[in-house]
Amino acid sequence: MNTKSFIQFICIFFISCLSLTAQELTEKQKEYQENKVQIFTLEERNNIQNWIQKEFAQMNLSEEKEAQYSTILLSYMGKIQRLDDKDMGNSKEDIIQKMDEMIVNQDKELEKILSPEEFAMHVKIYDRLLLSVKNRIAETDYPKE
Question: Who contacts 15 (Cβ-Cβ below 8 Å, separation ≥6)?
């Protein structure tokens, strides 16, 4: 996977997890779709995607590191995206606490594969993205269950 494809894949996965039509979904997928919370508008997601592409391209990872990096990121992104779904019953505080815990674990794995310079770039990019996510979570109403 080349760098541009990798970055596009990460952005698309992170910003808009599912885009299947309801007719193609299993019952479990329909339930998941109904419980999904979208904290960014389509325009915001597009702006974020463009920003992420530009920022991650500057990391210039080798193919091997890129593959390892994407595997780790995608694994944690999938878990993080589920935290604010309605069926999870998490409060804003729960979401942020669990997200922070996952990021600590993710970063431990990333430190093993990235050089100190690459890891510093990752943290700089990811921290800005996480700040936006946390700010939006703070603005979003979550049902208490």
Answer: 40, 45, 48, 49
Q: What is the pLDDT of residues 71-107, one digit of tens each?
A: 898 888 878 877 777 777 778 888 889 989 999 999 9
Residue 79 tokens read as 């878990």
Judged by DSSP in three states, 16 sits in coil
Distant-in-sequence, close-in-space partners of 74: CB < 8 Å, separation ≥ 6: 10, 13
**Closest C-alpha to 2, from 62, 76, 84:** 62
Q: How many CB atoms lie within 10 A of CB 135?
A: 11
- What's the rounded Cα separation, in Å, for the pair 32 and 9? 21
What are the counts of helices (DSSP H) followed by strands (DSSP E) for the chain?
6, 0
* Cα gap 12→45, rounded to integer Å: 9
